[in-house]
Amino acid sequence: MNLEAASAARSGWAQTLSCAALVLSASFSLAEPVAPFRPVATYSIVARDSATGDLGVAVQSHWFSVGSVVPWAEAGVGAVATQSFVRVSYGPLGLQALREGAAPAEALAALLALDDASAVRQVAFVDARGRVAAHTGQACIPGAGHLTGDGYSVQANLMLTDDVPQAMAAAYEAATGPLAERMLVALEAAQRAGGDVRGRQSAALLVVRARASAEPWSDRRVDLRVEDHPQPLAELRRLLRLHRAYDLMNQGDEAMADGDMALALERYAAAEGLIPDNDEFVFWHAVTLVVNERVADALPLFGRAFAMNPLWIPVVPRLVEKGHLPATPGLTERILATAR
Questions:
Q1: Which of 166, 85, 81, 86 has the alpha carbon at shortest distance from 124?
Q2: 306 vs 38, which has greater pLDDT?
Q3: What's the predicted TM-score (pTM) here?
Q4: Distance in angstroms (rounded) separating the CA atoms of residues 289 and 303
């Protein structure tokens, strides 16, 4: 970016932050009681995947629906976690500042300067270049603190011990695999180190693409929330595994649409392997086998699907009627016979 463009960008986000002053002026001050009081005591991680450029936030809290409050991310822009006595506007305003050219440290400092209650805020930023910035106000409830590393920041408040940020950082750096799985490993390490002193209730995972696409509905790679659960991280891991399986099913559907039956079968089989007790995967795998003229291989799968969920039985003739299964004489009867 040349100096003229940089100056224009800086002017743009400076105007954004000036407008933010109007929003944040409604924020409570430390000396004034407010309602509702929103102590979203929490631990979270914001991170950029150095291999793919994907950006994400992961969080757990003893607070209902933490995923609707703490995590913010935008493809090609950055990710923000806003917590402690949370001010939600740090999320959208922070992303807007990053989008318009501010570095994370600049955007965070400007927003904090506008906030009379910055001492109770805990906020972390990561941008599309992997630059990070974090703030833990001096009035956040112990144990509270944050650690920043290469392309990530971990932060926690109201923890049982002071060891949570260190445990999260070590676990994230040692983890392998996709960004969502590595961030979840960090959350699990935080829980083992003591977690929230009050316990746990909700969790969320959000991962967006490295670059925005022409199809914004596809820019969120992972968007999972556990609103209220006695074991939110275990449930989040289950949902993430299910998400991966359905993603494979979607890839299979796309391969089918492209006429690549071999790839479709590979993807369907992989999805079924991840979640072998999912009747939906077994049924559509069987359908694909039939379409690929492998009826003998399909029949045992139809039998399994019908045994798991008999409601698939009336679906078969409907698929034949609309051309999604061949109208070969006797085929429908052979398929339905596997239910007996």
A1: 81
A2: 306
A3: 0.86
A4: 14
pLDDT digits (tens, 9 = 90+) for 219-267: 999 999 999 999 999 999 999 999 999 999 999 989 888 888 889 889 9
Q: Are residues 112 and 24 in the same domain?
A: yes
The pLDDT score that the predictor gives to residue 253 is 86
Chain Cα centroid distance, residue 268:
23
Does residue 36 surpass a pLDDT of 90? no
The mean predicted confidence, pLDDT, of the chain is 89
Helices 261-274 and 279-291: crossing angle in degrees, nearest 10, is: 160
Number of domains in the chain: 2
Tokens at 26, concatenated: 């409604």
Indicate whether 284 belongs to any domain: yes
- Domain limits for position 18: 3-229
User: Domain boundary residue among 165, 198, 229?
Assistant: 229
Map tokens 């077994």 to a residue: 282
155 Cβ contact list (under 8 Å, min separation 6): 43, 44, 45, 81, 83, 122, 124, 134, 136, 145, 146, 147, 165
Q: What is the pLDDT of residues 47-68, one digit of tens each?
A: 999 999 999 999 999 999 999 9
pLDDT of 257: 82
Task: Mark whether 81 and 106 lie in a shared domain.
Answer: yes
Phi/psi zone of residue 61: left (φ > 0), alpha (ψ -120 to 50 degrees), beta? beta
Looking at the domain assignment, is residue 94 inside a domain? yes
Q: How many residues does the chain have?
A: 340
The answer to the question of residue 45 being in a domain is yes
Spatial strand order in the sheet of 55-61: 145-149, 152-156, 42-48, 55-61, 202-208, 220-226
